[in-house]
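call fold(seq) -> tokens
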Amino acid sequence: MHIIRASAMKHATNAPKLPARRTRAVPAPAALRTGMAKAEGEKTLAEKALRQLRDDILNGRLAPDARLRINQLQQRYGLGLSPLREALLRLSTEGLVLAQGQRGFVVAPVSLADLQDQTLARKTLDTAALTQAIAHGDADWESQVIAANHLLARTPLPLDASDVDAGMLWEERHRAFHRTLIAGCGSQWLVRLHNQMVDQAERYRTIRILHHKEAAAQVRDVVAEHAAITDAVLKRDTALACELLERHIGATEVAMRRFFEAHPKDSPAD
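ret:
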């Protein structure tokens, strides 16, 4: 038995080696590739529609209560039905658009009651996130807060609605400052909800500037407000930082109430 096994092993060793089989990736069928490319293209177009619609709503080019007719939006943006409907549905979940069943979509209305509700929600949300950020944020986070405040302080707040570029730059840096404040909280949900609340607040600031230039005049020193919040954060003084942030957020509500009291014909119904 041992001799047989040895012989078998010898024959096996001397046997010619077969070339290794090469495996090739099987290409996806043409129909599948076409479908994947189409889906990717539709996703990109939907994101484009979402970005353009959101920007036009936040910048007041699409006014509160404006009806969003698909055929008009197709002409406005040069996009098809599917990406526009997907974008509108997404904006409806963010509270910027209302779906009215068979009647289609409208830009979400504004009101003082709605602003008060938003202000309460944002105070609660942002102070909770800031508390966590102060507790857990590291030195890198601190440096990002300092940098965001520095950029914002060097960006003048435009008082003329026609200066679109300056307005967009200020909003971008203002948003970045507040997002950076809570970035150390460690919660993606808090950051995501914060972004939605900031979108809503931006609409009200835009309304004031678009309707009356004098309404944009700052009786507040927003640069000093941001600097005070930054200083409290760097000192890890949670109570003071949250108090200053609440006061800062609430100032928008106060300013809007004064604006509508001074211009009642522009005031939305509560």
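Residues 112-266 form a domain with the Four Helix Bundle (Hemerythrin (Met), subunit A) fold (CATH 1.20.120.530).
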